Amino acid sequence: MSKKSTADGYKNNRVGPILRAGDVAQAAIQAVEDDNPGKEVHIEDRTAYIRIECEDECVLTRASMEAALGRPFQMRELEINLGSFSGQIDTSPERIRFYLAHHI
Questions:
Q1: What pTM did the predictor assign?
Q2: Phi, psi of 78 (to 5 degrees)
């Protein structure tokens, strides 16, 4: 995990969810780490919300969320907690993918 300066935000190609703080956000951190092997996951905890980002693409699956939460999970529950996101988004009942169509 690393912290980033918001002043340097324009210099990166990071994408991912911005979630309201809580158990879903904490589970999403673990799920993103599991679903994006080999990628550096950047976490910015602002108390009220948590920004989770990976370079170029960030995948989050229902199976990983269920494993992290220890209970059944539907992706719409993540969408309820999704305050915003960086990049473009592609959703399905099994996963959410944040990605860049064009690199900076």
A1: 0.86
A2: -65, -40
